[in-house]
Amino acid sequence: MKNVRINLGRRSYRIAIGSGLLDRIGDMLAELPVGRKVLLVTNTTVGAIYAGRVTGSLAQAGLEVFQVAIPDGEQYKTLSSAELLYDRAFTAGLDRRSAVVALGGGVVGDLAGFVAATYMRGVPFVQVPTTLLAQVDSSVGGKVAVNHPRGKNIIGAFYQPALVVSDTAALDTLPRRELRSGLAEVIKYGIIGDASFFTWLEDNIHQVLALEPGALAHVIEQSCINKARVVEQDETEQGTRAILNLGHTVGHAIEALAGYGRYSHGEAVAMGTAVAIHLGMDLGMLSREAARRIKNLLHKAGLPTTVPPGLATRDIITAMYGDKKTVGGAITFIIPVDTGRAVIHRRTSEERIRQAIAAARAQ
Ligand SMILES: O=C(O)C(=O)C[C@@H](O)[C@H](O)[C@H](O)COP(=O)(O)O
Ligand SMILES: [Zn+2]
């Protein structure tokens, strides 16, 4: 088992990465200062495969488990799903020391985390991510949220988990499209700050797609290390943490406009990264060669790098004004300047954005 530590003073925690960890969750949870009752939040798909093992492990450690499954899909990351979980927690008699455990992908983790942050003003929270995207990104760093029809993650909080347990064997049952979606965030870490990881991905992406255990464990560990480094510097995104939003300014707009669930989060982020690449070239900040390498790696991972024709540019731009990084009407973009470095570009002009979207359609 590998461990990555995220140092945030009293809110520090570890990310345990390894094969078969689902059967050890009970013991790991028993090491935390939590009460006897646990709310296990999952979705119907993941729950059908893995909830039995997790419940068994928790019960063996003497914990009383109350399970709740929401339907599978980004369209269920809503306040009404949260309300259902509050009802279940209250009915089960969960108190302030009872833990909420999220078993599933980013939707389950964000939703369960939002409920953990707000139920009785905050109860212990444990992330058990079962998708690549959740293992490399959404389970780490404490962003929890639900969506608003007009904007992604608009209602949320910063609320760190007490523990993250990533079982790499859970990826064996992950649909290919979901695996590729997670790779968009993995590639992001290479682009924004880790040139050698970027090169490693260029050389090894096929092993990752083939679920080669060593390659997968390396990808998850390296991604978590990269994310921890950023979050430790700026936990609540007052400045530098925004770098983790590469591809998300346009990506979130696409997800909301197309209807949540139409494109996976990673697909939308890949499209958004393509727009950011064109902005970078247009601003003279990114060389053609670096742009080619980034696009090429996204392609190798099976991700889209064009903006879909059905989404009008003016609608994408309007949706971007609702982005959390838009402050005082100024749209912020994260722009790659090399394979291993990106910058936060504030006040990006609408005209340049329009041109970059057009360029990303024309590919
Ligand atoms: O953890 C972060 O910070 C990120 O930006 C990671 C993103 O990949 C993730 O999708 C995040 O939820 C987006 O944050 P948001 O604040 O733009 O909603
Ligand atoms: Zn993301």
Automatic annotation (TrEMBL):
Zn(2+) binds at residues 185, 248, 265. Its cofactor is Co(2+); Zn(2+); NAD(+). The keyword Zinc applies. Its EC number is 4.2.3.4. Residues 182-326 form the 3-dehydroquinate synthase C-terminal domain. InterPro entries: Dehydroquinate_synthase (IPR050071), DHQ_synth_AroB (IPR016037), DHQ_synth_fam (IPR030963), DHQS/DOIS_N (IPR030960), DHQS_C (IPR056179). One of its GO terms (cellular component) is cytoplasm. Its main location: cytoplasm. It catalyses: 7-phospho-2-dehydro-3-deoxy-D-arabino-heptonate = 3-dehydroquinate + phosphate. Binds 1 divalent metal cation per subunit. Can use either Co(2+) or Zn(2+). It is found in: Cytoplasm. Keywords: Amino-acid biosynthesis, Aromatic amino acid biosynthesis, Cobalt, Cytoplasm, Lyase, Metal-binding, NAD, Nucleotide-binding, Zinc. Pathway: Metabolic intermediate biosynthesis; chorismate biosynthesis; chorismate from D-erythrose 4-phosphate and phosphoenolpyruvate: step 2/7. Belongs to the sugar phosphate cyclases superfamily. Dehydroquinate synthase family. Catalyzes the conversion of 3-deoxy-D-arabino-heptulosonate 7-phosphate (DAHP) to dehydroquinate (DHQ). This is 3-dehydroquinate synthase.
